[in-house]
Amino acid sequence: MTDLDIDFVRAQFPAFDEPSLQELAFFENAGGSYPCRFVTERLARFYRERKVQPYGPFDASRVGGEEMDQARIRLAAMLGVETDELSFGPSTSQNTYVLAQAFRRWLPEGAAIVVTDQDHEANSGAWRRLAEDGFEVREWKMDPATGHLDPAKLEPLLDGARLLAFPHCSNVVGEVNDVAAIVRLAHAAGAVACVDGVSYAPHGFPDVGALGADIYLFSAYKTYGPHQGLMVVRRALGEALPNQGHWFNGDALYKRFTPAGPDHAQIAACAGMADYIDRLHASLGGSHGTPRERAARVHDAMRRRETALLEPLLDFLSDRNDVRLLGPGEAEARAPTVAIHCDRPGAALAAELARHDIGAGGGDFYAVRPLKALGIDPGHGVLRVSFTHYTTSEEVARLIAALDHVL
């Protein structure tokens, strides 16, 4: 098999067996996905059997620490990085903030950094605030009509810059940026590349090693896991940046950017995300390969399924002259995070869809800067419908019918 079996996929998610959710077609996945059963089972087991200080000599403590280590070991291998290059924190926003404090001390006085106006505020705001400390903040601007980030416009901004922070995919524009090519431009200019992968990783774990990013961040609660932020910091950079953790943990790369004690249970539960990827790989007929190869095969299967699901929705929207689709109209060029603007507020449209048992979102989604750059009043907002590989074609059809009625 080369395609995902949707019945098998949905059987891995307790939410689809929950009676109170049976009528809901869930299209707010960009705000957070359903957790898979491997995660919920590991989390419940940890709280039941291992909820003690980990890494001690007695069994409950020792096993708890081993389960935390297993999450880091397995996920790092799937991401194509070394085990200690992966850190866990309470959220991507907080991980980015901690990194910004490290860069504030590490960058030369007055150094230039480049951000974009396509970003969710989590990966942009912390870097922009460095202007308060005398750093030069340059903005790589989107095309105001399409939302596209043109690499040709980036090159002059990188002249003399020390850091580039940009998204793998915007949470409202949806276009998948060519991360590997953009990272090469940054490195050629002598800049560090920090990639916000929050809106991309739910659609297949990226091969961070192949992308070449110095930093890659995403959120476990959007990749079928618990509420944790995952942060890859490659060794050369991580060892050069000043330690943000306890001074006595400074020699441990994965502890250098974790100022507070980690959430033991949720880190251990993150191993369930690796369980899920491996189970999907087995369902595709695979039984061999490295963790990195298995994750890549599942990534491609997820993307194929989501692209096929996305095409009828984009066709429906392209046939209407009363809505504006943000981002590309081609399914292959984007993630299935679809924001539309029309004369009615996004929140009002989401409320109407809810009466049709469609779970969607309306508002600015912390993408205030991108919406303004696209000429949209953030107070008016957009309607955002977002899905993943576990969405069914029947649910997409229900969404289209409800949209047709509401619009």
Output the CATH class name of the largest domain. Alpha Beta
Q: What helical percentage do the residues reach?
A: 40-55%
Q: How many separate structural domains?
A: 2
Q: Structural class of the secondary structure composition?
A: alpha/beta
Radius of gyration, whole Å:
21 Å
Using the coordinates shown, work out and report the CATH topology of the largest domain: Aspartate Aminotransferase, domain 2
Architecture per CATH nomenclature, i.e. the level-2 architecture of the largest domain: 3-Layer(aba) Sandwich
| Total beta-strand segments | 13
Describe the biggest sheet?
7 strands, mixed
Give the rounded overall mean pLDDT.
97
Number of helices: 15
In short:
The protein is α/β, with parallel strands linked by helices and 407 residues long. The chain is 40% helix and 14% strand.
